[in-house]
Amino acid sequence: MTPAITVGVDGSPESLAAVDWAADEAALRRTPLRLVHAWLWQPLDVPVVQDREAQAQAAQAVLREAGARVAGRHPDLAFTSEVLSDTAVSALLGEAGRAEMVVLGSRGHGPFLGFLLGSYGQQVIAASPRPVVSVRAVPDRAVPEGGDVVVGQQGSPEDSAEVLGFAFRAAAVRGAAVRAVRAWSLPPIYAYSPGSLRLADEAGGLVPFEEKALREALAPWRDRFPDVPVVEHVEMGSGGQVLLAAAAGARLLVVGRRTRHSPIGTRIGSVAHAALHHAPCPVAVVPHV
């Protein structure tokens, strides 16, 4: 069975924006869509009336509203919906294991952003085995129709294969270009050793080295998607700042997240964190080794 694009719904404007994006994506990819709402009855020892049936009906109403939205937007799109009796993080991570991708809404509060489910969204992004797309509730005009799919590339071709593959597939179904961005910084040794800089220049220089690394990482994906235009962007600076600057006007930003566990648990990573907090367009976070 073809994996579905799964979207978490809670009835908020942000989650409905995620529903719209997920429905459009499923239509582009000709992939089934799955709407899920996590609701777990947990009676509290407090003196209030707790109507389990009314809450269950409200949970179903959230999905009916989302389903009507999908049907109105894409009448021929196949989709299913389900109320999951589980906590939000557990439910969404369980869905992620069998989905093509998971889509969540996000909201902004001044210069800082929270996710659709508060810290829950961040936990899902940090632990999901499949790509997670974060979508803001913004006017349609805020995400240009003709924008590029911008992707951050770092490390070796093997390190970035999953991330680039997601970006190229997203660009292909949209008829868009891929703008591949590689940020680099001067190794500390060069800052303290002018002689080392001279040796680097004799070897071709650091900029040609970074440009060559990006070309090599893109090569197999250019071959696989020959109709997708590619723009290469190599710039010295912090990964988050360079990527966000390049993503101005993008229709989708794709970043990677290493799946290796740190001593303090799963983490999103600084570049993905910056993208999720500051990019105006949808952000796809793709896990990779």
TrEMBL record:
<dbReference type="InterPro" id="IPR014729">
    <property type="entry name" value="Rossmann-like_a/b/a_fold"/>
</dbReference>
<feature type="domain" description="UspA">
    <location>
        <begin position="4"/>
        <end position="136"/>
    </location>
</feature>
<dbReference type="Pfam" id="PF00582">
    <property type="entry name" value="Usp"/>
</dbReference>
<protein>
    <submittedName>
        <fullName>Universal stress protein</fullName>
    </submittedName>
</protein>
<comment type="similarity">
    <text>Belongs to the universal stress protein A family.</text>
</comment>
<dbReference type="InterPro" id="IPR006015">
    <property type="entry name" value="Universal_stress_UspA"/>
</dbReference>
<dbReference type="InterPro" id="IPR006016">
    <property type="entry name" value="UspA"/>
</dbReference>
<feature type="domain" description="UspA">
    <location>
        <begin position="149"/>
        <end position="287"/>
    </location>
</feature>
